[in-house]
Structures are given as structure tokens and as C-alpha cells.
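Lecture notes, unit on protein representations.

Consider one protein chain, 92 amino acids long.
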Amino acid sequence: MADKVSHEEFIKKAIVSLRKEGYKGIHTVYSGFNEAFKKYFDGANPIDYTNKLAKEGKIVIRPVKGGVMLYLPEDAPGADTADQALKKMGIS
């Protein structure tokens, strides 16, 4: 078997490959990401590695019903959403 990809490569590849059309991120449970990660890395906990990459700014994690969504930083929903809402309301 060929050499395994790194945890970071696996996670980034999963985000791009597993996302549904029209979406920029993946749900860790419903996409099958968690189970695929555990199988590929012999039972390793995907939470540990996704949290590490999020702290390093390499991915973005957003909590959602039933788990979390994973995004590449350039595809994540904007952090300035509140500012945009206030601006639209004319009270920024």
C-alpha cells in the first residue's frame, strides 16, 4: 500500500471531496468523514486533529445540529456576519 497522507492532507481533501454541490463545507457525521478518518488512521479520534488544525488556522469549525461543519478558511462563512447585518439594518 502506498504511504498514507498526513492528517492535515486527509482533512483538507475530505472537505473538498465530500462536500455536496452548493455547499462549501462538510458535516463531520453526515458526510461520513468521522468514520472514514477513524478507518484510515486506525481508530484515531478526528476531533483531536480537526481542533488542532482549527487552532492553527488551517481549517474552520462551526458547530451545527448533530456535529460540526468543517471548512477551508477561504470558504468559511464570514466572521463579520454580524457587522454585515448591522450595516444592512443601517445601525452600524
